[in-house]
C-alpha cells in the first residue's frame, strides 16, 4: 500500500509541474505579441524624438532669421539685393548668366 501511495504522490507532483510549465508557456504565448509591440513602439518613440529635435533645430534657425530680418537693416538689404535684384539708385547691377540658359 505504501508503494502505491508513493507512485501517486510522484505522479501528482509530475502533473502539477507539467501544469505549472503549461501555464508559464501559455502566459509567454499571450504576452509575446505585446512584448514585440512594445519594442516596436519604443523604436517609434526614439525615431519621433529624433525628428522632434531636428524640427526644433530648424525652428530655432527660422526664428533667428526672422529676428535678424526684424532688427538688422543690413540683412534686409542683402536679401533685397540677392533675391529681388534691387540696387541703390547710384549703383549699377551686373548679372552673370551661365551658358545654356
Write the layout of secondary structure elements.
Layout: H1 2-71, H2 73-84
Word description of this protein:
The chain is an all-alpha fold and 101 residues long. It has one domain (2-84). Helix content is 81%, strand content 0%. The chain is built from two helices and no strands. The protein has helices at residues 2-71, 73-84. The N and C termini lie far apart (108 Å). The model has no long low-confidence stretch (mean pLDDT 89).
Task: Point out poorly predicted stretches.
Answer: none
Report the portion of residues in β strands. Answer: under 5%
Q: Topology as H/E string?
A: HH
Q: What summary fits the major beta sheet?
A: none
Question: What's a concise summary of this model?
Answer:
The protein has 101 residues and is mainly α.
Key terms:
single chain, 101 residues, mainly alpha
